[in-house]
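Practice record 12: protein with zinc ion.
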Amino acid sequence: MKNKHSYIQAGELYAEIGVDTEEALKRLAEIRISLHCWQGDDVRGFLNSGGILTGGITATGNYPGTARNACELRQDMEKAFRYIPGKHKVNLHAIYAETDGKTGRDEIEPVHFTHWLEWAQSNNLGLDFNPTCFSHPLSADGFTLSHPDKKTRDFWIRHCKASRRIGEYFGNQLKRKCITNIWIPDGYKDVPVDRLAPRERLKESLDEIFSEKIDSRYHTDSLESKLFGIGSESYVVGSHEFYLGYAIKNGKAVCLDTGHFHPTETVSNKISSLSLFLEEILLHLSRPVRWDSDHVVILDNELEEIAFEIIRNDLTERIYIGLDFFDASINRIAAWIIGSRNVIKSLFYAMLEPVTLLKKCEQEGDYTMRLALLEEMKTYPFGAVWDEYCERSGVPVREKWLPEIKKYENDILLKRKQ
Ligand code: RNT
Ligand code: ZN
């Protein structure tokens, strides 16, 4: 009741500058973000013997309660979704397959994801997919699709082909586009002599993977670049220029991970340019702290700036929003909830901007008004409208979700013996 009152007042204030909060509430409910399953078990997966994470990425922390199997992981994600307003998607990695333990990564099939698919169907969730080209003996020397040894390359090519078929199957079954994103760790610790040959091999491998035509109504291929990783500090084969060139030439999407660029470079400033040359873009929203540390996404300026780019330029149909962080030092379900709520909040914040008025100021050269409005908008009663969205979506407002997660931690998570 108290919130209703604040919402009505807030709505009146926004209406005065030409922003319709009811319209924004409806628009926000249309957006699906993709929640990454790997936050739930520190990127261990079930196809990864020994559960050791390699590939130059790492989850630090030893908070208790990691999901030990697919049932627990799904149970934990369901719990998280209860506190995230809206209907969303789940992003799976190939290592989350449920197999007999003997299936090679190059032999995985849709049948190994039956439980995931049925679960997605019954929870009205979309699915996205990723081949897992790390945490495997054949990636141990740091190379996969660009490996100098043809046999090793062929193994990873088969794995990526198998992954696309699974992605296409998900999309078809759910009648909702599945994005299959390829990220590989390939690179050198130290300065290489030949930067070209590995890139030639990667290009050839991708050509081979994509030579299988699959249904683009329900499936999109995306390619994720990176600047450096642990063990690939000096050279990464799949750089931004490499994949951007490949994607433009071959009609693929690129994935921009917010932790994969130079520290002073921003993903927000890339979106408008790329939107002119690419049909589709995938985002991996993460938070780099000094390096690609994959901290939980907070509501910081760059996240808002990314949201502004998507909303101001009306790109919600062509930009897919995925989350990519893995923090093992806090409650993992809370990590999902905090990160997702922040992403949704940032989009909502952008939807409550008087964009037509701001663009008009800019076109007319009235930069004084542009700056004044942008700054005054920051203290508009956004919180009251956000609370209303949570309430209407049937999720707890503000931090009221936290006691429920603490209870789940005590009742379920702390009882899991690792
Ligand atoms: C690695 C990439 C990649 C992974 C996931 C697990 O730097 O960001 O997206 O985080 O695929
Ligand atoms: Zn990523």
